[in-house]
Amino acid sequence: MRTWWPITLYSGVVLLISLSHDPRVPAAVLILILGVAGRRGPRLLLRALITTALFSGLVTLGYVVVALDQGNAPWLWVLRTNLRVLALTTATLLFAALVDPLTLVRSSRWLQTVVVLVLAQITTVRQLVGDARLALLSRSPGRPRLSALIRQGGSIGGALLLKAQRDLTTRTEAMTSRGFFLDADRD
Amino acid sequence: MHVPDGFIGPRTWLPAAALAGVSTWFALRRIRQTMQAEAIPTLGVITACSFGLMLIAVPLPFGGATVHATGVGLLALRFGVTTAYLAIGLVLALQAFLLGDGGVTSLPVSALCLGLGGPLTAVVTHGLLRRVNERLARFVAGWSATVVAALLTALVLGLQPLVAVDAAGEPLFFPFGWRTVVPALVLPHAVVGVLEGLITVMGLDRWRQEER
């Protein structure tokens, strides 16, 4: 019960912001979200701004230029869209901060296991890619050339495929030996 | 191609969510039927692999921007469309929820365009061209997967001013039509697709070498 209220509230907020076209609605919701977020509010807002800045900025700039060129006032669209984007992204970031991603797939034990496996391996994969990048930099006296970067990209891609293939066998055997799939039909 | 929340209207994302939900259900059922015990580790490991492939960034020759691979071609040619779709969909969901990268309302559209459209294109083009030349087929598979995914996303974005306008005729969500958004998204991805194609060829070469 306790885990369902943020999911219901978040879904309601997403629908409310998506279906309403009055800029005051996302503005009010954004203020509410920042109030609920408390001290982490400014950080969430900054993260939302950073992650959406490129796409929103380019579309807004393009629309303002086109609308002004055609003699239309673009400001209502600019206000409405950017407030909606910010409110929805901040709501998602707050939701992710409050809710463990595993609770989202709680209804399926099968999916929950998949998500645990993914989250556990993401750190290793990230480290593998980071190490490969550092290795290339340390071997290059100057800035690596584009051809070297592409070759390295292909090499990491192949290494990741191979790692995935080997991990598959290891993990399936490890999970089977622990009796994991004996009750796989139940979900 | 991470479209943030707020640019795709509910008239588009709600049906897309239903379609993505149904296709995910079918894909999960298929993967569980064909793989049984290995289905869980397969999905877990390939999703982590897909996440890793998306971390491969190549700086653009001009300016300080970087582009990252999607790994769509590699995943589709190595593990098949169903596994690639589920893995890419799961990665997009984790990126949207955990990092705020890409919107939650645009997630079904991204999953269908990049996760389903991309791998399907890669497998079909590879199947058509493999008799001509295997490496050329892999390159075109990687390139076309990126371009088709971008084209599908552009078509969805360009649809917005047609289906969602206010009483004054002003757009409510994404403001540009197909004539603007299709070239704006497809042309850069046609260039990025070359990198994706090369990474697909080299990645599969490296995997084959290590396999021997």
The domain tally of chain A reads: 2
Taking pLDDT < 50 over at least 5 consecutive residues as the criterion, the unreliable ranges of chain A are none
**Termini separation of chain B:** 36 Å
Pattern of helices and strands of chain A: HHHHHHH
| Helix/strand class of chain B | mainly alpha
Which parts of chain B are unreliable, with pLDDT below 50 for 5 consecutive residues or more?
none
Query: How far apart lie the N and C ends of chain A?
Result: 20 Å
CATH architecture of chain B: Orthogonal Bundle
Approximate strand percentage of chain A:
under 5%
Find the count of extended strands of chain A (DSSP E, 2+ residues).
0
Approximate helicity band of chain B: over 70%
Class of secondary structure makeup of chain A: mainly alpha
Rg of chain A, rounded, reads: 23 Å
Task: Give the integer mean of the pLDDT values of chain A.
Answer: 85
Report the major sheet of chain B. Answer: 2 strands, antiparallel
Shape of chain B: globular
- Shape descriptor of chain A reads flat
User: What is the third-level CATH name, the topology of chain B?
Assistant: Arp2/3 complex 21 kDa subunit ARPC3
The spatial strand order of the largest sheet of chain B comes to 1-2
What does this structure look like?
- The complex is a heterodimer of chains A (187) and B (212).
- Chain A has 187 residues and is mainly α.
- In chain A, 80% of the residues lie in helices and 0% in strands.
- Chain A has 7 helices and no strands.
- Chain A has helices spanning 4-19, 24-37, 41-69, 75-98, 101-104, 109-139, 146-177.
- In chain A, helix 2 runs antiparallel to helix 3, helix 2 runs parallel beside helix 4 and helix 3 packs antiparallel against helix 4.
- Chain A is flat and about 65 Å long.
- In chain A, 27% of the residues are buried.
- The mean pLDDT of chain A is 85.
- With 212 residues, chain B is mainly alpha-helical.
- Chain B contains 7 helices and 2 strands; from the N terminus they run H-H-E-E-H-H-H-H-H.
- Chain B has helices at residues 10-35, 39-53, 72-79, 81-99, 107-129, 134-163, 178-211; strands at 57-59, 66-68.
- Chain B has a two-stranded antiparallel sheet with strand order 1-2.
- In chain B, a hairpin with a 6-residue loop joins strand 1 and strand 2.
- The longest helix of chain B is centred in the C-terminal third of the chain and has 34 residues, at 178-211.
- Chain B starts with 9 loop residues before the first helix and ends with a helix.
- Classes of the chains: A mainly alpha (187), B mainly alpha (212).
- Chains A and B meet through helix 1, helix 3, helix 4, helix 6 and helix 7 of A and helix 1, helix 2, helix 4 and helix 7 of B.
